[in-house]
Amino acid sequence: NYRIAKSIKTNNVALFIYSHRRMAITGDDVTLDEIIPISYDFSVFICRYKGADTQVRVTFFKEELELKLPFGSHTRLFLSEVNRAWSGKALCYDKSYYNIKLKSEVRDDLIRNSQPILSNKSQMLGMPQFGLRDNLIKCELLKNEDAYTYIENYSFFLGTYNVNGQNPKESLSPWLASTTTPPDFYLVAFQELDLSKEAFLFNDTPKEPEWMLAVYKGLHPDAKYAFVKLVRLVGIMLLFYVKVEHAAHISEVEVESVGTGVMGRLGNKGAVAIRFQFHNSDICVVNSHLAAHTEEFERRNQDFKDICRRMQFSQDDLTLPPLTIMKHNVVLWLGDLNYRISDLEVDHVKDLIAKKDFETLYNHDQLKRQMDEEVVFVGFTEGEIDFQPTYKYDTGSDQWDTSEKCRVPAWCDRILWKGKNIKQLHYQSHMTLKTSDHKPVSSLLEIGVRTPVVNEESYKRTFEEIVRDIDRLENDCIPSVTLSQREFQFQDVKFMQHQAKTVTVYNDGQVPCQFEFIPKLDEPSYCKPWLTANPAKGFLAQGASVDIDLEVFVNRTTAPELNSGQQQLEDILVLHLDRGKDYFIFVTGNYLPSCFGSSLSTLCLLKEPIQDMPLETIRELGSNPETDKPQEIPKEIWMMVDHLYRNAKKQEELFQQPGLRSEFEEIRDCLDTGSLDSLPGSNHSVSEALLLFLDALPEPVIPFSFYPQCLECCSDSSQCRQIISMLPQCHKNVFNYLTAFLQELLKFSAHNRLDVNILAPIFAGLLLRSPTKQDSTEKRKVKEFFQHFLVQTPSDRDIHYKSPE
């Protein structure tokens, strides 16, 4: 039976011992075997380390019990809780209770009271904390694990399929059961699972269980599989199955998702990921759907980088920093990456395919070119492609796209990997499936996984050498580091434009050390919200160094106070060494005010671009808005809307396809400086800039105070219009101006394919924002409220009536 030990915090503290015969899911799965009071006669000994496990002996009077605990953070937290509970009962610090026995050798430093009460600082410095020593031993053991561990190979089936919003109409066995022998793992990825507006807006779809059932029925029939995890973001879904005999060895399963659609948040594009530990290997699987269209390869590159930066998995030990994708032993990346064939006409491409000249065709593949230039997927491997492009076909056939657009065939659907001990056994498409305009792709990988089986002699020798080295180094040495720089100046910081500088921390002391940025007195975080340090904590071996990126990024949350001058780019970071001293890093900078994150009332009073106005003038306008006659609407909104009205009335996918970040920065600079009479960038970049502008308003177009009333009367058109008539004048003008513009766009729906069901949810959530997080009911009411204003009435004015003078 497995044993689970748990400590509780009460006046009478005890250790509760449970047993269970299978994976514990509910309280009915476990049985309480024993309760051991934590008192003066209680003690804990570490008997030995075996592989990744720690053998612990618990004694109470003459009773004795041995527990096997996983080595690492969970064990450290459990033992520190036990120590803390015991220290509350003990009257003094007694070394005899804290012994480590490794064979015949006795060590007394690994388990310590987490907060010892010692008056002599030299005593404290000579007494290593459990956390530091645990981390050091674990780090050194991992560094030398080749000396004592074994590698065992397991087969991973990776499959990706863009199903184009279709229901499952055929068996998936030709795809999922295409291997001769059943694989150990299945990671099955879908894109465009549901293309409906309801799925896009509410992340809810009935197609999830339909495709999940189709996958389960399509798995290899010669093995039994256990379902492990599902994660979905709108139409991007990833399913994880494993042979039942391996399920017990999977742990630390976490899921995350990142939207990279319009405003970098909407989930029509983006990625989902599952990370887990199998035996002693950390594995992360990412399913992504990147930006579409041949010319948008830079946007795809940007999506990839955003996913890598923003995808973070929390760890069970909340004191540890989140794990990023690249922090895993093995990374498996699959999905509709949407990279296309460049510089070849469609007929030439089809001719090369007919000749099976995939090598020539592959030389024009955008993903290959971007990887060769080390722009994206650095360190990843993709197997040789010897199958024809998987996009785009007429649905239900093997015929290339015959629509008016006549898309150039492309290898949109890809599978890549990163890590050691990985061998690809096959990489292929599955032409027999005809449900979608894509063909599914699969890859069978053989991955070498480190197992808990160890060479006992080699492990013992390695462990003892590590402990001896630590003992030798820890003779009352104080941790010490040097910093490459203490003061950092960030020049001309702009809204949503990332800046980073690097400080190198070098361990020049005689012992390893742990570092962490800690909060200053009475502050909730170690830094201001516009600043981050990456990594914010870590471990440094003797003589090692680490580069810490100090990153400044002003977003919609932090921009308002910086624009108004209430806050400045100034902060002091405190870098703390465990058992050592603190180091101070000074960060300053100058922020260039932006219309993004400024209030409507302030912008209506600005006759000049915001960066041409002294900060003191802006501050006065914000505090005393009656000083001058305001414009009816901010000129920045007029410039964006006027640009779209003149250039984008017939633009497809307007407000749905993201623009380029570089173009957004040009548009922002143009609005903030007045450097150009017309806006640069594509229609998609301007439309996204408009959405970002509305999203960044400190007070939305419909002020927060009106939000409850709007929800109450959402079904009554006349009451909704009555509320709008009560808005502050500049807010009312902007609302009427934007709704008139959207009504104009709907007149061209035959060309731009926009309708009320597309525009209402996108703009409703920006114009009528909740001061707190919305639930699905509120989202539907907000959408219903705004829909009333997309139907033109005789009282609605023409779009041009608000053009600023």
UniProtKB/TrEMBL annotation:
<keyword id="KW-0968">Cytoplasmic vesicle</keyword>
<keyword id="KW-0378">Hydrolase</keyword>
<protein>
    <recommendedName>
        <fullName>phosphoinositide 5-phosphatase</fullName>
        <ecNumber>3.1.3.36</ecNumber>
    </recommendedName>
</protein>
<dbReference type="GO" id="GO:0005829">
    <property type="term" value="C:cytosol"/>
</dbReference>
<dbReference type="InterPro" id="IPR037793">
    <property type="entry name" value="OCRL1/INPP5B_INPP5c"/>
</dbReference>
<dbReference type="Pfam" id="PF00620">
    <property type="entry name" value="RhoGAP"/>
</dbReference>
<dbReference type="Pfam" id="PF21310">
    <property type="entry name" value="OCRL-like_ASH"/>
</dbReference>
<keyword id="KW-0472">Membrane</keyword>
<dbReference type="GO" id="GO:0052658">
    <property type="term" value="F:inositol-1,4,5-trisphosphate 5-phosphatase activity"/>
</dbReference>
<dbReference type="GO" id="GO:0046856">
    <property type="term" value="P:phosphatidylinositol dephosphorylation"/>
</dbReference>
<dbReference type="Pfam" id="PF16776">
    <property type="entry name" value="INPP5B_PH"/>
</dbReference>
<dbReference type="InterPro" id="IPR046985">
    <property type="entry name" value="IP5"/>
</dbReference>
<dbReference type="GO" id="GO:0031901">
    <property type="term" value="C:early endosome membrane"/>
</dbReference>
<keyword id="KW-0443">Lipid metabolism</keyword>
<dbReference type="InterPro" id="IPR000300">
    <property type="entry name" value="IPPc"/>
</dbReference>
<keyword id="KW-0967">Endosome</keyword>
<dbReference type="InterPro" id="IPR013783">
    <property type="entry name" value="Ig-like_fold"/>
</dbReference>
<dbReference type="GO" id="GO:0004439">
    <property type="term" value="F:phosphatidylinositol-4,5-bisphosphate 5-phosphatase activity"/>
</dbReference>
<dbReference type="GO" id="GO:0007165">
    <property type="term" value="P:signal transduction"/>
</dbReference>
<dbReference type="GO" id="GO:0030670">
    <property type="term" value="C:phagocytic vesicle membrane"/>
</dbReference>
<dbReference type="InterPro" id="IPR008936">
    <property type="entry name" value="Rho_GTPase_activation_prot"/>
</dbReference>
<dbReference type="InterPro" id="IPR048869">
    <property type="entry name" value="OCRL-1_2_ASH"/>
</dbReference>
<feature type="domain" description="Rho-GAP">
    <location>
        <begin position="631"/>
        <end position="794"/>
    </location>
</feature>
<dbReference type="InterPro" id="IPR000198">
    <property type="entry name" value="RhoGAP_dom"/>
</dbReference>
<dbReference type="Pfam" id="PF22669">
    <property type="entry name" value="Exo_endo_phos2"/>
</dbReference>
<dbReference type="InterPro" id="IPR031896">
    <property type="entry name" value="INPP5B_PH_dom"/>
</dbReference>
<comment type="similarity">
    <text>Belongs to the inositol 1,4,5-trisphosphate 5-phosphatase type II family.</text>
</comment>
<dbReference type="InterPro" id="IPR047078">
    <property type="entry name" value="RhoGAP_OCRL1"/>
</dbReference>
<feature type="domain" description="Inositol polyphosphate-related phosphatase">
    <location>
        <begin position="152"/>
        <end position="455"/>
    </location>
</feature>
<dbReference type="InterPro" id="IPR036691">
    <property type="entry name" value="Endo/exonu/phosph_ase_sf"/>
</dbReference>
